[in-house]
Write a structure and sequence with these properties.
Number of strands: 7
Distance between the termini: 34 Å
Radius of gyration: 22 Å
Helix content: 40-55%
Structural class: alpha+beta
């Protein structure tokens, strides 16, 4: 069963819809759209308020109406999320590993925990507690994270290659649970393959389908698919099992996402226009 949490659901709505309409939406439209996912008005208002204090949104008032738009930080957050989710690494591997080693004191535990989260998000795996590796060179991204967390003096980065007597697969198995990731892809394909086939037929037959249903179903699809890159480190093909399901899952996602797009956008536009007034934006 899918659980929709206010912050994540709001970001999904902005990422897939609102940002393409100038990045701003009236709070009434936000509440009505997210009511489709059993989110209360209070929970939405509280989440938007917290996200505003965090610098992701700015508010504009017009009489009794409030309109929330993305700040530059908000746009950047969505850009980074979309890049990680939808722009998978496809380059070949030259056998070089990027290695991050840290010795962060206990008094900076919060920064240490945040670094681990960021390393995991960037596709690194823990070779040991304080040594993380990736087959991709993400040193620029990691350097930015280290600078932001103000822990430069506690972290070192290296490039390394395995000696011939070491099997890369033994390293992979220590850092990532590929079986678990495979099962998550398989579960996604199992759930949505039949749905895609069913609704392809219904659309082709001209069967009337509610625009609101398409919006909800497409939203659920995005919400489900966006979880997968959190687990998948985007390992090069040379290091993956032959039956790896990443590309099949991505193809299915894009087919179903596009199939539902027209009617889902129709429903969004209907609600959006009820609560929004024309507003120019300097971002697309």
């Amino acid at each position: 069963m899918l659980i929709f949490r206010p912050r994540a659901t709001i970001l999904t709505l902005y990422g897939d819809y609102v940002r393409h309409r100038g990045g701003e939406i009236g709070i009434g439209g936000l509440i009505e759209l997210l009511a489709n996912f059993s989110l209360s008005e209070q929970s939405i208002r509280s989440a938007v308020s917290r996200m505003s204090r965090a610098g992701l949104f700015k508010v504009r008032h017009n009489g009794l109406r409030s309109y929330y738009s993305l700040t530059e930080a908000g746009f950047d957050l969505l850009d980074k999320g979309a890049q990680r989710i939808f722009e998978r690494k496809t380059s070949g591997w030259d056998g070089t590993w990027s290695v991050v080693v840290y010795f962060i004191p206990e008094e900076k535990r919060e920064a240490r925990d945040k670094l681990r989260q960021e390393l995991n998000w960037a596709g690194y795996g823990p070779l040991s507690t304080a040594t993380w590796i990736s087959p991709h060179d993400s040193s620029r991204e990691i350097a930015e994270i280290i600078a932001r967390l103000q822990i430069k003096e506690y972290v070192q980065m290296f490039k390394a290659k395995l000696r011939d007597f070491t099997n890369p697969q033994s390293i992979i198995s220590r850092c990532w649970d590929l079986h678990l990731i495979h099962e998550k892809y398989a579960s996604f394909l199992n759930e949505y393959s039949s749905k895609l086939e069913d609704y392809q037929g219904r659309f082709q037959d001209g069967e009337p389908i509610e625009a609101s249903w398409c919006f909800v179903e497409r939203f659920k699809l995005i919400h489900q698919y966006r979880r997968l890159p959190f687990f998948d480190p985007d390992l090069p093909e040379e290091l993956l099992p032959k039956d790896w399901l990443r590309s099949q899952a991505a193809d299915l996602f894009h087919q179903y996402h596009d199939l539902l797009a027209e009617k889902a956008n129709e429903y969004f536009e209907f609600v959006f226009n009820q609560y929004n007034e024309p507003q120019l934006s300097n971002r697309n």
